[in-house]
Amino acid sequence: FLMERKTHVKINRKEVMLAKLRKSCSCTPQKLKNFVMDFFPVLRWLPKYRCKEYIWGDVMSGLVIGIILVPQAIAYSLLAGLKPIYSLYTSFFANIIYFLMGTSRHVSVGIFSLISLMVGQVVDRELLLAGFDLNDDVPPALGDGSLQNDNLSNTTAFNLTIAGINAECGKECYAIGIATALTFVAGVYQVLMGIFRLGFVSMYLSESVLDGFATGASLTILTAQVKYLIGIKIPRSQGHGMLVITWINIFRNISQANVCDVITSAICIVVLVTAKELGDRYKHKLKFPLPTELVVIVVATLVSHYGKLNEMYASSVSGAIPTGFIPPKAPEFNLMLRVAVDALPLAIVSFVFTVSLSEMFAKKYAYTIRANQEMFAVGFCNIIPSFFHSFATSAALAKTLVKTSTGCQTQISGVISAMVVLLVLLFLAPLFYSLQKCVLACIIIVSLRGALRKFRDVPARYHVNKVDTLVWVVTMSASALVSTEIGLLVGIVFSMLCIIVRTQRPRTALLGQIQDTSFYEDDLEYENLSTVPKVKIFRFEAPLYYANRNYFLKSLYRLTNLDPNLEAARRKKYEKKEKQHLKKGNHRTANGLGIGETTLQLVPKQIDFQALVLDCSSISFLDTTGVNTFKEILKDYKNLNISVLLACCNPSVIDSLKRGGYFGRDYGCMQEMLFYSVHNAVLFAKDQK
What we know:
By secondary structure, this protein is mainly alpha-helical. The protein has 28 helices and 9 strands.
């Protein structure tokens, strides 16, 4: 029987588009109000803020994150190749803007190690192209830490006219110019993606790709920090293969290691790792995480200052960090053109990490976020701060976990964190003058524990899915051994190729009947299945399209042990020989049989079925090639007096076959060709003469 299909009213797409356009272009007070409230979600939730219920958790989590942010911001400036003051600016502005525009209550947006690394790689490359020496480590000038002294001490003697930068712009000035231009362009990309609703791009970054990218980038980050750990001066490698080149340079210069930095690094790593492990083990007993990084930085700064480690042992220190805010400045347009391509992967990675974390915690705490608004939020977290000497930001998992564990309820906690950073910016920054760079490197390396622990998960990942494990390994290897941007691209392309290959060579099976039931399963996978006499049941577990057409036919012919084209050719050849014998007057055939016996020879012995049932339950769609393949099968088997029956086709496949003329012009034979279950098709085949 055939079920009656519903008739769908045809939609006039032109009228629908015009109606939507008129609606979107109309402007009413209510619509304007909704637009503003949607663009600034804080206007919706802040008036409903339950002060007595939320304030303590928000203040506590804000203070803890602020305390963590300060040392991390100073440390991650090494990754970005910029001065610590710019990292503090970034952390301050990102928290304020996300408070106004973000829809997640819990994510911590600010400086992030992977984003800092990507920014730093572009900054280093452009500095080299501009003629600057990446290892131009000018001793920090002694002063009061004011902006004027800092700017003077960092102006180098390079005479530049490149990209429109004037001759007075030194290395630091040019570096932050590149970073702000890169950040601005990345933010513009994110806003444009939000306007055109291109958030679906994130779907192509699978969990395996993201994990592999994060792990590979973590290896690059770790490698870049080793020289600070042991206090050696080596060229900062650029381009592809940076990880291998850097390790070669490290081993070549290992004899020049600074003993003071090595001892300091060993102590700091032991303290940080021990504190982290204890914190993880007893986190259910602790009301808030231990501020280990801050304690280490304070103690290390005091030891370095009073022990005069820089003067006596030539230990590299952070130098003067100015207080206050540098006057805002628009990013250079000429520099934007130089970094436009680099900004695209930066924009995608920043957005994907932010949205994935937002969705994770929204699901955990039972509320919803708007992915499109998140794209706008993270976009403006890049655009606006770029005018204030800040670089790219993203949500960070580690700080977000700390936030939720310390009682965060809303983004008020982000404002509290920003106030802590502001306190450092206005008053406390100069106190970090004597902080050793090796201490900052230790903080960065210990923060990579989570990403590096992914190596322990490889066996379990391999047990669950071998293809996903291969994607992870390829992405991680490319990100570490080639470059982070190339690694991300390789991961996306390779994961898509894996999907294509899996649809090109899917599982195929001949089905047998489960005894005393109307169900059928793979004959090679299950025991005690009974074959159906004179009927072959073939299942193809993928869409049928141009790329897997040949595999479909080869599998069908192999499993049924019959190629209808070869059989037709054999028959024609046989008939031709028969005609030749008859013309010669020989009434015996080529096989030595009489003419009456010839008909028996036309049907080969190996054809042991009279009906072929195609189980289409796993075929989600057919393209033109797929429809033509079905028509070809129908014709070829019909020439051999074998009927082809289709079972379990979804409406999309049925419509494709109808449009392709598979059932004939008036669909008259449809009832004898299409069945809603395999068992119905088998019963029909058995009833055929």
